[in-house]
Task: inverse folding
């Protein structure tokens, strides 16, 4: 049973800071301490022994430059790394990467956002273990902010209730799946196990749908 990582990295990053006119650099290529965020993310997965292959979905025009940068990363390149053409949306990029891999039904596929470089190796390993056991899993964090339920109106959003924080979890990545399950079903309708990191331990339980 091998572990394959899919990194959709073809987005323009408009939620963080869209590229300025005439600039090609998107958020996944923004430098963090002198190194592109995407490289930081890849290093985290390359450091996990169980990970065998990494597929990165990129915009076609960004592939040559990124390949040159990637070739300098000895630790990452010890894994089997492939660049595939991404799409305009995350779902399309994941689909393209998924179509490029060769895997058995019980192999584990992790999907992780390119601009989440602070994921821990512990989290990656826990999601792998949970996906092996349950078929699908996702990391999460307890909510710390007050969450309001609202009703949208022409005048704005009207608060209708306060949702107890203990009933809210902030979904993170990676998401982990058996390859056979991921190929058969839309992940938006896929029952998953949610792993929530508390201060001292991981808690697990069923999540109704994946995000």
Result:
């Amino acid at each position: 049973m091998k572990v394959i990582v899919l990194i959709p990295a073809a987005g323009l990053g408009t939620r963080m800071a869209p590229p300025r006119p005439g600039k090609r650099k998107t958020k996944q290529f923004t430098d963090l301490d002198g190194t592109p965020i995407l490289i930081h993310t890849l290093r985290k997965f390359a450091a996990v022994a169980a990970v065998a292959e990494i597929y990165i979905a990129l915009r076609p025009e960004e592939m040559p430059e990124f390949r040159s940068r990637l070739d300098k990363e000895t630790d990452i390149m010890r894994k089997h790394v492939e660049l595939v053409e991404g799409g305009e949306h995350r779902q399309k990029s994941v689909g393209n990467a998924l179509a490029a891999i060769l895997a058995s039904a019980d192999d584990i596929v992790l999907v992780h956002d390119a601009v989440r470089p602070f994921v821990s190796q512990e989290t990656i390993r826990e999601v792998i273990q949970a996906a092996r056991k349950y078929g699908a899993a996702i990391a999460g964090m307890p909510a710390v902010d007050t969450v309001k339920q609202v009703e949208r109106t022409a005048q704005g959003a009207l608060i209708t209730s306060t949702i107890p924080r203990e009933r809210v979890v902030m979904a993170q990545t990676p998401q982990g799946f058996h390859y056979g399950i991921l190929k058969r079903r839309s992940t938006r309708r896929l029952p998953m196990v949610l792993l929530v990191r508390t201060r001292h331990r991981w808690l697990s339980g069923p999540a109704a749908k994946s995000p």
Q: What stands out?
A: Residues 39 and 70 are 8 Å apart (CA to CA). Confidence is low (pLDDT under 50) at residues 207-211.
